[in-house]
Amino acid sequence: MIGNDVVDLLQASIESNWKRKGYLAKIFTTEEQHIIQNSKDANATVWLLWSMKEAAYKIHNRKTKLRNFAPSKLICKIDYLRNGIMGSVSSGGEKYYTSSEINLNYIHTIAAQEQTQLAYISTSIYEIPYPSDYRLSKPACISHHGNYLALVYFANQGKC
Amino acid sequence: MNREEIIALLKPIVITYAPPSAALDHINEESDFITDLKINSANLVDIVLDVEEKFDITIDNQSMEKMLTVKAAIDVISDKLNEK
User: Fold this and answer.
1) How many CB atoms lie within 10 A of CB A80?
2) Which class would CATH give A2-114?
3) Which of A97, A149, B3, B72 has the fewest CB atoms lying closer than 10 Å?
4) A interface mutation test: which of B13, B33, B41, B59 has the most A CBs within 10 A?
């Protein structure tokens, strides 16, 4: 199982005011809030952590068959590496591995149950208008937000 | 406050964050915030914060976890009001 999540940064700035009193504390652990406060670009860090939680939740939810809204129970760790942003998300004894791409327009995170699986995930990102038949390509996970549609495929399962 | 009174105060909050849709026109206790009303999950937090302000209650994370439907939200609000 793999998961993904895309955040359209313009759309997020219209839809959400994370500076609102109490907002961050409902979503992020104390440690994550420190990461946000100490980062050079707090806005990007908020949505990076959020996309990691969402991508991991998509696996966690299918695996546990539990549906809930408990973002602060999905605990993120970030490693800024030269070739990208790697990380992990832990929840209830489970751990998921993530890789994220950030640019000026969007943040996209992919998540997998094993770190080695990340290399086998391929991603297609489209802007509106999306191809109408995108489901025919049988993506393993789909995320859309604002102007963007992100599809991921897991090469090991022959879904590429 | 009974369930009708709670839902009357809850509806305008939910409408703020939901895109226009037929499901929104027919919002009821069974409506699911994400699957029916298409509310962005990042905005669920806004609904929780607005509810806290409107009803003057504190919603702990354990209660927030359940708030995926109008019914669950009413249950949480009702419980918190009774605790006051």
Assistant:
1) 9
2) alpha beta
3) B3
4) B41
CB contact under 8 A, A16 and B46: yes
Three-class HEC string of B11-37:
HHHHHHHCCCCHHHHCCCCCCECCCCC
User: Amino acid identity, residue A118?
Assistant: L
Long-range contacts of A62-68 (CB under 8 A, 24+ apart): A62/A1, A63/A1, A63/A94, A64/A92, A64/A94, A67/B68, A68/B65, A68/B66, A68/B68
For chain A, the domains span: 2-114
Q: What is the interface pTM, i.e. ipTM, of the complex?
A: 0.93
**Strands of the A75-81 sheet, one edge to the other:** A2-8, A106-112, A94-102, A84-91, A75-81
Half-sphere exposure (CA, 13 Å, Cβ side) for A136?
5
User: How many residues can be counted in chain A?
Assistant: 160
pLDDT digits (tens, 9 = 90+) for A88-117: 999 999 999 999 999 999 999 999 999 999
A94 strand-pairing partners: A91
